[in-house]
Amino acid sequence: MESIFPRNTGSNAIVRSHARPAVGLGVQENAADIPSLVQRATQAHQYGVWLQSNTASSPGLTPHGVDLHGISTLRRLPIGDIVNAKHTRYASFNDQKTHWAAMLIVMLPTRATCDALIDFFFENLSWVYRVHHAPTFMLDYEAFWGKELETIDIHFLAMLFSLILASGIRVTERYCVEHGIDFNELRENIHIWYSAIRQALSLGDADSNPSIEALQAMITLQHYLYATRKDNVIKLLLVSAVEGAHALGLDSESTSVNMVQREVHHRVWWEICVSDTYHAMSTQNPTLVQSYQSPVPAPLNCSDMDISASTITVHASDEPTEMSMNIARGQIFQVFNRLLMDHGAHLDSFEFVVSLDAELFDVMDQFPWFFKPKFAHRWAELSPEFHFVPWAYQLLNGCICMQRIRMYWPFITTKPDTAWEVIMAAASDALTVYQMIRGMQQRPIKDLQNCGIIYYQLFSVAVTLASLLLVHRPEFHNQVRVIRGRIETVALDLAQLSTEEVSPLASEQSKIIGEILEMYDFPSKVDPRSTNLLISQLRMALGGRSKLLGPDQAGATPRSDTQEPSIHTPDLETDISVLKADIHSASELSERFWASSTIQEIFTNIDLVCLGLEQNSLRSHLGIGVY
Questions:
Q1: Which of 114, 442, 450, 523 is 20 to 30 A away from residue 616, measured at CA?
Q2: CA 66 – CA 64 distance, rounded (Å)
Q3: How confident is the model at residue 515 (pLDDT cuts 50, 70, 90)?
Q4: Count of Cβ atoms closer than 10 Å to residue 125 Cβ
Q5: Across the chain, which distance is largest between two alpha carbons, in Å?
Q6: How far apart are CA 600 and CA 3, in angstroms?
Q7: Of the candidates 157, 79, 169, which has an alpha carbon nearest to the alpha carbon of residue 121?
Q8: Residue at 316 is within a domain
Q9: What phi and psi values does residue 66 have, to the nearest 5 degrees?
Q10: Residue 582 falls inside a structural domain
Q11: 8-state DSSP, 473
Q12: Residue range(s) defining the domain that contains residue 501
């Protein structure tokens, strides 16, 4: 399949900074970021002190950098020694590429910290985007630490950073203590690792010279980008990933005789397709790939240990494997992808939506037993390595229910009976799986690592359902007790997750849900203007376009910082060019990572004014300043 975009010549790589970076960073930060400048100045002073005390015993090191007469010695050092000694913070190499590679290498944490974060990733996170073959990666990872500086694969380095970054934003304080990691220092390094990924992809020219490793890095990077709501970067990243996949021929069935390569080929392609469709559904933009027509076979139902270069053991569909959720999700998202075909031209057709909904149920009927609620009592039979399966089912089921609400929302006035029947059923089911999981768990919710991974989806679902109850009280009269009870459960659990150990955001998310429920309980205290604004924001959050708003809401213009572009984009190539330019004008490095995430997540789901709070007062309450 030909790419729908013109081939990239390399001028639009993820980062194009030709200036020499600041000490210890792979990309330039915003010049106006005063706290960062102060921090770098302090670091520079500390580096100088370190150099003065170490140059006598370190051949090739001087207070001004690395003596070129001793550079050959440094080039031959294993990567592990360079990282632990941090020598290359002060190196000046003859060729720019080696210099930048050295700067990236010293952004890595110590080998012990990397090991712990890699273990955490494959034990707790890899099921979300299953694009790696863990045994192969671990062999390459072990070899990486013994390589010399000039022999490293820069795309592998980007992938390595993406794994430790994903773990860095999800790892608990308890895990860090158990593995001797400074939790606060780790959180402070998150934005540096993000910068390193971007610079590594640029240095490796991932746009014009793509590789499987670069695509794996891009896909895994979504953990961070969605957590921090960097929507413009997600758009750009998906464009680069799709272009790279086309250039590598991933849009066709693999012909490799190497079973590992073949499966990774298919895994990467389908994760790109799912990511593309999910982002398109969330923003009501066109998809980049018509994956419902893709000839690429789905990944096989097998775990990593079932695959070697020459052999593969495929399991029956009703046997759980590491790929079970990803296979089921790929099937569902092929249906969703068809929903958005022709730039969403068929979304206004009730018959088309009904036919797609029927197709969804046909796919779900074929799900294995562990993805069906009536067999939830058998989850206890799952072996420990499949601990993630119920949580994966909640992730999948919640997404399906929210999308069904979006699909039928435009028809609540023209086809009210059918539309409301589906919407209420989907609203009731959206948290059913989570309720089952919670009822079967013996440990406190804050000790369940997988709950921390999907907490943002839980918040998104709960706040949407709470808003539906508030705005459409009469329609949900018979469902209020069940739906509200599940919403309150999520709010209580988010409050428990709010310790620094799991999620510093969850406390505020719990309060947001509570504010909406309070508006439901005391409607006489609600300002009508807030309700009208909430209706408008809810329509936007559920995928409604302005022409679908009723006459009473037509004048309620959503906030400019939350409004998404129309799905009927007039000039896709022009739009993509704009998206690629976004990265250069946006300030990607947040001074306070978690604070920016809080603001963006709240704004994405519901307008702050709808909660009866002035923006400035809420920002002050969150302790993040007014801007």
A1: 523
A2: 7
A3: confident
A4: 21
A5: 82
A6: 32
A7: 169
A8: no
A9: -110, 130
A10: no
A11: T
A12: 373-566+590-627
Global confidence as pTM: 0.73
Instruction: Name the β-bridge partners of 65.
Output: 62
- Measured distance CA(350)–CA(411) in Å, rounded: 7
Vertex 293, ends 289 and 297: CA angle to 5°?
Answer: 100
Is residue 191 within 8 Å of residue 590, measured between CB atoms? Answer: yes
Q: How many domains does the chain have?
A: 1
Please report how the helices 455-471 and 506-521 are oriented relative to each other, as an axis angle in degrees rounded to 10: 10
Q: How far is CA 589 from CA 160, 190, 287, 409, 600, in A?
A: 20, 10, 27, 37, 14
Cβ atoms < 10 Å from Cβ of 27: 22
Query: What's the mean per-residue pLDDT of the chain?
Result: 73
Please name the residue ranges forming H helices in 221-290. Answer: 222-227, 231-247, 259-283
Task: Enumerate long-range contacts of 458-461, CB under 8 Å, 24 or more apart.
Answer: 458/398, 458/431, 458/434, 458/490, 458/493, 458/494, 459/490, 459/494, 459/506, 459/509, 459/512, 459/513, 459/601, 459/605, 460/402, 460/605, 461/398, 461/401, 461/402, 461/430, 461/431, 461/490
Position 270 in a domain = no
CA 27 to chain CA centroid, nearest Å: 22
Query: Reduced to 3 states, what is the DSSP secondary structure of residue 112?
Result: helix
List, for residues 21-75, the tens digit of each pLDDT value. 332 322 333 333 434 433 443 444 444 444 344 433 333 333 333 333 334 444 5
Would you place residue 149 in the very low, low, confident or very high pLDDT band (cuts 50, 70, 90)?
confident
Specify which residues 61 forms β-bridges with.
66
